[in-house]
Amino acid sequence: MKDDEKIFMDTNLWVYLYAKNPEEKYKKVKQLVNTNFKNIF
After folding, report:
1. Domain assignments of the chain as residue spans, ordered by start
2. For 20, left (φ over 0), alpha (ψ -120 to 50), or beta?
3. What are the φ and ψ backbone dihedral angles of 22, each rounded to 5 degrees?
4. What is the model's pLDDT at position 28?
5. Nearest CA-CA partner of 20 in 11, 10, 29, 32
6. pLDDT tens digits for 1-41?
7. Each residue of 10-29: b (16+ CB within 10 Å) or e?
8. pTM: predicted TM-score of the whole model, two decimal places
């Protein structure tokens, strides 16, 4: 992904990140946010 490309995260993904349940979804979303944080709007 280019540095100037933006990605949209659905609100359900933020819920998984906050709730940490189910754990496998939490881990996937956490990785997505950690690797693409500057591109999320």
Report:
1. 1-41
2. left
3. -70, 150
4. 94
5. 29
6. 666 788 888 999 999 999 999 999 999 999 999 988 888 87
7. eeebeebbeeeeeeebbeeb
8. 0.73
In degrees and rounded to multiples of 5, residue 8 shows phi and psi of -105, 135
CA distance 2 to 16: 26
- Whose tokens are 């693409």? That residue is 36
What does the alpha-carbon distance between residue 4 and residue 7 come to, in Å, rounded to a whole number? 10
d(CA 16, CA 38): 19
Query: Which DSSP category does 22 fall into?
Result: S
